[in-house]
Amino acid sequence: MEELSDRKQKILAAVIEQYIATGEPVGSKTLLPLLPFSVSSATVRNEMAELSEMGYLEQPHTSAGRVPSQMGYRYYVDRLMNNYELSDREKRTIEMKLGTSVRSPEKVLETASSVLADMTNCAAVSTTPSDSEAVIRRVELVPIGARLAMIVMLTSSGILKSTIVRTDYELTLDIVEAFYNIVNKLFIGNPASEMNLAFLQTLAVSLGDKALIMTPLLVALSELASTAGKSEMLLEGQSNLLNHSQISSNVYELMEFLRKGEPLSNLFSAHKDEMNVLIGKENMYRELENSSLIFSRYNIGGRDSGTLGIVGPTNIDYARLIPGLKYLTSVVGKILTDAVEE
Amino acid sequence: MEELSDRKQKILAAVIEQYIATGEPVGSKTLLPLLPFSVSSATVRNEMAELSEMGYLEQPHTSAGRVPSQMGYRYYVDRLMNNYELSDREKRTIEMKLGTSVRSPEKVLETASSVLADMTNCAAVSTTPSDSEAVIRRVELVPIGARLAMIVMLTSSGILKSTIVRTDYELTLDIVEAFYNIVNKLFIGNPASEMNLAFLQTLAVSLGDKALIMTPLLVALSELASTAGKSEMLLEGQSNLLNHSQISSNVYELMEFLRKGEPLSNLFSAHKDEMNVLIGKENMYRELENSSLIFSRYNIGGRDSGTLGIVGPTNIDYARLIPGLKYLTSVVGKILTDAVEE
DNA sequence: TGTTAGCACTCTTACCTTTTGAGTGCTAAC
DNA sequence: GTTAGCACTCAAAAGGTAAGAGTGCTAACA
Predict the structure, then answer these.
(1) How many CA atoms lie within 13 A of A281 on its CB side?
(2) Which of A292, B49, B53, B167 is the most interior residue, by most CB within 10 Å?
């Protein structure tokens, strides 16, 4: 990336900030009062013409003002922008809103997404904690009725999952004991992700005549184990997307894309930096080509566990929202870490 | 409601069905091939003029075709429409899609909403099962770590809830036993809705010196009990609302309204029929005045438990969607009833 | 050499007018 | 009671003009 003169940088930054604020193409005269130096509009025009030629600015049509190009935004985000500093007040507001709902990691993420959507006026996405290397730490079988039980599983990364099992036979003490034996021998201490159907089948063989009676319980447990590694996608504030004229042309497409979840999830796994900013076509999906994505990974107990992010127009307020997301992410990490520790 | 001549009824029905199909005002000539009798366009015009005068049809402007009024839709839904009969194929599709996810009532409702949204091309709303008279049937305390436990609660209506509790002290056998004593004496058999904070406070007094140590566990249990009675609102397919030109003027308002959930929930509780159709301003909310609501209550074990519904434009395909929703509702009821039985 | 005033030029947007055509309501004949 | 015929209405489309924001270029200036 070439070096821009100091004045060009200032002009580029001013165009971008103005365009972010108003959404209208920015003309040379509009810019004058926003610049930290005094020159005439003609000078600004000359500079802008060069910036256009270099590819940092674009013109919707000849007689219109300038609009930042994707390359312009990138330069701004990487080198020009000075991050907004959150006030203590804002920090406390975030903490308060998140602090109330620590019943489960899912709830925390849900609240976080909701807060994020409100804070940014964008759609907020997040993934629930996942850890593909998580090991099964503990399993409990809780009888609830004669033929009804709950299986509870805790993994090394603190994920707690439970499910209901229904059996055709009564859950006698014998069966419960046998279940615990099998579990202690073959499940505890093993990675949750390995408890798949293939594993179950080899297991069934080794059980012999007990296999039949154990099957429902073990199937439920292995399903539980396999969901423990997988993360769920949460989406909030979709309606905020309607407020941005930039993307209003294909909001429907965009919303459908977000709803599907999977492609986004792929995108997230391809970018594991602490903070990721994808502007316009920098991502591979056509549906997102007019949008910017900002997302950040949160840690639980120092372990990378999931993603929190926002989707908005390319003229999103990077300088304000990136620090906001960063702080929110750190708070979520802290809350979830505290929740896991014993 | 006055009686309309047979011919007027047929014309009204044809106008409505055509308008539902195309979304365009319907003129007298367009109508001719759709009528089961042969008359001239002039005759149809005369009849339509009378229907307009009576209030069943409206004209966007003098030289336009006719559009059904709210009163017109009402007459159609109540007396003219002949319900579409679902094919076995469609029925099986619905059953299949719902059958796969019987892990928890919430999941079932989530899938049902999703299926409903796809099926109707509308936004789908549902409430998770609730039963304000539910009685606490069973409570289990499952130790998971030294200071970490899970409380599981089952109500008479089959609702199963669980939560995690963290304590500052070790969960000794004594404490667990004491907990079960208190629970058996004061919780089991009592309505979940009564286990509120006030109840907890009187309880705390009667416990004396044990109160302090029991508090976190009992607070968690009472929170659990109070959530068991409350139903949650699920929303799917919001983006479908963007496809209907009728409501596109204020989609944002509408989406925000649906997201809030509470007003909708009030609306649901005010209409407890098995099948409810609210057309345009028949409901009290300004945000819904251009929309129709169709919702239906599902039963679990014969007990009215929750709502499934759709929100769409007033020119929604009543004849097809009402039977569809009805069938879906019955399937959901059946699945949840089966899940509760032991 | 960089900066600036001045100006012709461009192109969108808003506004006005005209035309078109779908659809009506009415009248008179059947 | 039904229908052909016709004048009438009005939204939407099409065309045409004017306004204005903003540009690029030129020539003068410091």
Answers:
(1) 4
(2) A292
Question: b/e string for B167-190 if b means 16 or more Cβ within 10 A?
Answer: beeebeeebeebbeebbeebbeee
As ranges, strand D nucleotides with an atom below 7 A of a protein CB are: 2-5, 8-11, 20-26
User: Could you say which DSSP state residue B314 is in?
Assistant: T
- Closest residue, chain A, to B253 (C-alpha): A239
User: 142-181 in B: which are within 8 Å (CB) of A?
Assistant: 142, 144-148, 150, 152, 154, 160, 162-164, 166
pLDDT tens for each residue of B39-93: 999 999 999 999 999 999 999 999 899 999 999 999 999 999 999 999 999 999 9
* Bridge partners, B160 (sequence order): B154
Q: Find, in chain A, the residue whose alpha carbon is nearest to that of B141.
A: A142
**Residue whose Cα is closest to the C1' of C9:** A63
**Chain B CB within 8 Å of residue A21 CB:** no
Given the structure tokens 């919303």, which residue do they identify? A255
Q: How many CA atoms lie within 13 A of A189 on its CB side?
A: 5
Nearest CA in chain B to A141: B142
CA B135 from chain centre, in angstroms, equals: 24
* Contact assignment for B255 to A242 by CB distance below 8 Å: yes
- CB contact set of A155 (below 8 Å; sequence gap of 6+): A131, A134, A135, A136, A137, A192, A228
pLDDT tens track for A80-112? 999 999 999 999 999 999 987 667 888 899 999
Within 7 Å: CB of B52 and strand C?
Answer: yes
In three-state form (DSSP H/G/I as H, E/B as E, the rest C), the secondary structure along B139-150 is EEEEEEECCEEE
Q: Is A104 on the interface with B (CB under 8 A)?
A: yes
Residues A154, B144: C-beta atoms closer than 8 Å: yes
Chain B: nearest CA to A279, how far in angstroms?
A: 24
Which residues are within 8 A (CB) of A198 and not within 5 positions of it... i.e. 6 or more apart? none
Give me the total of CB pairs closer than 8 Å, taking one residue from chain A and one from chain B: 75
Q: Whole-number Å distance, CA A54 to C1' D6?
A: 67
Whole-number Å distance between alpha carbons of A268 and A275: 11
pTM score of the predicted model: 0.91
Can you tell me the distance from the alpha carbon of B73 to that of B278, in angstroms, rounded to the nearest whole number?
10
3-state per-residue secondary structure call for A23-85? CCCECHHHHHHHCCCCCCHHHHHHHHHHHHHHCCEECCCCCCCEEECHHHHHHHHHHHCCCCC
Contact: A252, B242; criterion CB under 8 Å: yes
